[in-house]
Amino acid sequence: MRAKHEHDSGIPPSGWNRGGFGTGSRSGVGLEEVPHPVASVGGAGAPAGRALGFPLRCRALGLKRRVSCLPHELAGRSRGRPLARAGGQPADAFPRAGRAAAATARRWDRLPRVFAERRERLLEKMGPDAVAIFVGARLAVRSADTEYPFRQDSDFWYLTGFDHPDAVAVLSTREGPRFTLFVQPRDRAAETWTGYRPGVEGAVADYGADAAHPRAELLGKLPELLRGASRIYHTLGRDGEIDRRLVSLQQEIRRQSRGGVLPANELVDPQLLVHEMRLFKSEDELALMRQAAAISCEAHHAAARLAMPGRWEYELEAALGHVFRARGGAGPAYGSIVGSGRNATILHYIRNDQQLAPGQLVLIDAGVEYDGYASDVTRTYPVGGRFEPAARDAYEVVLAAQQAALDASRPGTTLPEVHQAALRRLCEGMVSLGLLEGEIDGLIESEAYRPYYMHGTSHWLGLDVHDVGAYVARNGEGKPAPRPLAPGMVYTIEPGLYVSPDDPNAPEAFKGIGIRIEDDVVVTPDGIENLTREIPKQIDEIEAWVRGD
Questions:
Q1: DSSP per residue, 61-94
Q2: Do 267 and 338 meet the contact criterion of CB atoms below 8 Å apart?
Q3: What does the DSSP 8-state code read for residue 310?
Q4: pLDDT score, position 470
Q5: Which regions of 66-225 does DSSP assign to beta strands (E)?
Q6: Angle (nearest 5°) at CA 355 between 320 and 502
Q7: Is the pTM here over 0.90, yes or no?
Q8: Is 496 helix (H, G, I), strand (E, B) or coil?
Q9: What angle do CA 227, 120, 154 make, to 5 degrees?
């Protein structure tokens, strides 16, 4: 749990951090003037007008090469706190940080404006005489009296930046406070055990609430907050007590109708508005996602260097996790998949407890969560640093399919069209490998490919690894149709090929081979930007990464 952060300590209030994985936090780093993580492994240059990447020496992980995945401005930051205070060490204990620490401190006062702007946009969409209720996450029991590390609800975080459990936010376009927070009050005894609480005072001072109250007073204050509202935004099923109170309040108001008091006309799920907002990423958000991609790049490099016979899958997972946390991430954005041999054919394999053997492939699907934003990357590495002939042939098929999907990605196209581009190339490859027989159109129509490719090619990416946002919209005729891609949308491109070791119809050489290649892309006005392009995927580059050449 997080320790108390005093406002006069020189450390930003913990209200501006976000808990995750025990002691993690969200921060304002990257929200302003953040350069692209552009310098690639091996020293590739930066696009015009961008800062050069900052080379990271990874001696602790046994890496021989300099990995230039992270932007200079942010290299070495420590979970959003000025590095002069990190771990109680003086600033010169972190020689790489220097100016990054000062830049971090300068950005703290800019963070609240991001959440305030989002709230104002939502309030405009809500219309007049409307009230919205958002319920934050609670602590979840892991076993007995221990709990999972706290992770705030993504919608709640998106609108408030509040990273403490059991809070409720109320937004209103009626007279009175526009933004009210109900939070756990300060409690010295509780904070001794579980860490700092901003309390009612901190909710106003640190999070920009117009009013704040103890969480226990919510139900009693709802009549006052909702009186006169013609539209209530609330997601049913999140909190049973609030649901029941809303129903009873509407019944009470109906009984007062002779006095001129009217109940609300509508009860609307606010996710319809918030999720559409979250689908389109701002430059602030893209800066954080670029940083997440850069950290994931370094983490994959660390894990790839361990892809040697005799190593264990969990050793590679540990290398990933070390970089995620050491570079300022909250930890993995999802359970890291490290599947060697036949385990690579299991889509969501997370046991990560088998030993790597010569001639195998190891599929690593892992990305960091950085200030709440997910990176989702998959690469497939040859154990020992050399692809066997069959594995090489299969890998080339998946790589060609991914390139076809990348080529098909542009504003105006749709994710089903991106999927079809990858699928056609995959089916052509399956025929060339002897996995399928027949005409390509017929194989696609009959879904004969499904034993070897059983998932979609893309999903939205953002605060959640499978992020929110509608995949279907109404077309010009008012009929549901796949929505066209537009600037600001971020999604994955991840074709794969999986041959079960028990498949009686597959050629023997391909049995037990699993390959997936996944990148994260953002739609731009002119095409796409591949956020994870610095993580190698060409065969010679992949082999060199593993061997440390």
A1: GT--S-EEEEEGGGTT-BTTB-TTTGGG--GGGS
A2: no
A3: T
A4: 96
A5: 67-71, 130-135, 141-143, 146-147, 168-172, 179-183, 211-214
A6: 110
A7: no
A8: strand
A9: 90
Please tell me the distance from the alpha carbon of residue 333 to that of residue 289, in angstroms, as a whole number. Answer: 12
> Any residues with CB less than 8 A from the CB of 419 and at least 6 apart, and which?
405, 456, 457, 458
Distance CA 433, CA 443 (A): 15
Task: Extract the tokens encoding 243.
Answer: 């649901």
Cβ burial 221-256 (10 Å sphere, 16+ → b, else e): ebeebbeebebbbbbeebbeebeebbeebeeebeee
Q: Which two tokens stand for residue 101?
A: 């620490």
Residue 526 CB-density burial (10 A; 0-12 exposed, 13-18 middle, 19+ buried): exposed
**419: region left, alpha or beta (phi > 0 left; psi from -120 to 50 alpha):** alpha
Tell me the C-alpha distance between 135 and 138, whole Å: 9
Q: Across 341-402, where does the E strand assignment appear?
A: 361-365, 368-370, 373-374, 378-382
b/e per residue, 408-439, with b = 16+ CB within 10 A? bbbeeebbbbbbbbbbbbbbbbbbebebbeee
Instruction: Please say whether the beta carbons of 218 and 118 come within 8 A.
Output: no
Residues with active-site annotation: 145, 348, 365, 376, 455, 459, 466, 494, 498, 516, 518
> CB under 8 Å to 52, separation ≥6 — which residues?
38, 39, 45, 46, 68, 72
Q: Which residue has the tokens 């590739």?
A: 44
- What gap in Å lies between CA 153 and CA 139, rounded to an integer? 11
3-state secondary structure of 251: helix
| pLDDT tier for residue 253 given thresholds of 50, 70 and 90 | confident
Q: Running DSSP on this structure, what letter comes out for residue 216?
A: G
Measured CA angle at 316 (ends 465, 401), to 5 deg = 55
| Residue in the block written with tokens 């997370």 | 350
- DSSP assignment string, 442-493: HHHHHTTTTTT--S-S--B-SSSSS--S-SEEE-TTS-EEEPPP-TT-EEEE
The alpha-helical segments, DSSP class H, found in 356-474 are 389-408, 415-433, 440-446
**Which one is predicted more confidently, 255 or 463?**
463
Q: In residues, how long is the chain?
A: 549
Instruction: Out of 257-266, 270-279, 313-322, 412-421, pick the least confident.
Output: 257-266
**pLDDT mean over 238-246:** 96
Residue 522, H or E segment: strand 519-523
Which H or E run contains 409? Answer: none
CA torsion sign for 159, 164, 169, 175 is negative
CA–CA dist 276, 195 (Å, integer): 34
Residue 532: C-alpha distances to residues 291, 323, 518 (Å): 10, 16, 9
